[in-house]
């Protein structure tokens, strides 16, 4: 049996983004995001319910704190751990899975881009051509500065810091500080002896 366009999308294969199923799911996601972005900090329970519907599942005891506005393509391809904070105006384009660990902080305007298009302009064919995607994985205890862009196919290791304005095109080693365009290692970190066992327990 042939794969659906949706399954091809999630698997990182070429797919038609304008099929009826995916078009409807994007519309539904935008409705939920619009409702979420209209909430206030006093509506924590409403926000949690909307995130549950948008993302599929979030931690019941420690749900993500997301300052609106927040934007996604589908939502259901995003998984978040405990202790997540997103500052204003983050945009996660989730045609492929976006996996985020525990205790991750996002500055404002952070953008995660899993979609990509063929480099051949004939194959790309504007809005008529097919596209594909690559997943993004972010480990535990990561701090991502404002206006960072992370491209599809990237894995960000545990304990890292990404400087504001960086564009991340390649995997980031654990326990490093990276910055720039493209992002490069500018410092390697060592865990404090008093916290090493606790942190190692949480990220194992």
Automatic annotation (TrEMBL):
Pfam families cross-referenced by the UniProt entry: Hexapep, Mac
InterPro entries in the record: Hexapep, Hexapep_transf_CS, Hexapeptide_acetyltransf, Mac_dom, Trimer_LpxA-like_sf
CDD domains: LbH_MAT_GAT
Keywords for this protein: Transferase
UniProt keyword Transferase present: yes
Superkingdom classification of source: Eukaryota
GO molecular function terms listed in the Swiss-Prot or TrEMBL record: acetyltransferase activity; O-acyltransferase activity
Residue span(s) of domain Maltose/galactoside acetyltransferase: 6-60
UniProt keyword annotation of Transmembrane present: no
Family membership: Belongs to the transferase hexapeptide repeat family.
Name recorded for this polypeptide: Maltose/galactoside acetyltransferase domain-containing protein
Species this chain originates from: Apatococcus lobatus
Lineage, broadest ranks: Eukaryota, Viridiplantae, Chlorophyta, core chlorophytes, Trebouxiophyceae
């Amino acid at each position: 049996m042939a794969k659906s366009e949706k399954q091809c999308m999630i698997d990182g294969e070429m797919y038609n983004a304008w099929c009826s199923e995916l078009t409807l799911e994007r519309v539904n996601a935008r409705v939920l995001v619009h409702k979420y972005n209209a909430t206030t900090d006093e509506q924590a329970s409403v926000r949690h319910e909307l995130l549950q519907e948008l993302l599929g599942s979030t931690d019941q005891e420690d749900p993500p704190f997301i300052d609106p506005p927040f934007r996604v393509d589908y939502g259901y391809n995003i998984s978040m751990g405990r202790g997540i904070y997103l500052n204003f105006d983050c945009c996660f384009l989730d045609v492929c899975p976006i996996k985020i660990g525990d205790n991750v902080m996002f500055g404002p305007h952070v953008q995660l881009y899993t979609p990509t298009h063929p480099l051949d302009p004939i194959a790309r064919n504007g809005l008529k051509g097919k596209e594909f995607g690559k997943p993004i994985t972010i480990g535990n205890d990561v701090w991502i500065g404002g206006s960072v862009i992370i491209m599809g196919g990237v894995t960000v290791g545990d304990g890292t810091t990404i400087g504001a304005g960086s564009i991340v095109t390649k995997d980031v080693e654990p326990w490093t500080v990276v910055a720039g365009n493209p992002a490069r290692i500018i410092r390697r970190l060592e865990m404090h002896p008093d916290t090493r066992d606790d942190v190692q327990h949480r990220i194992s």
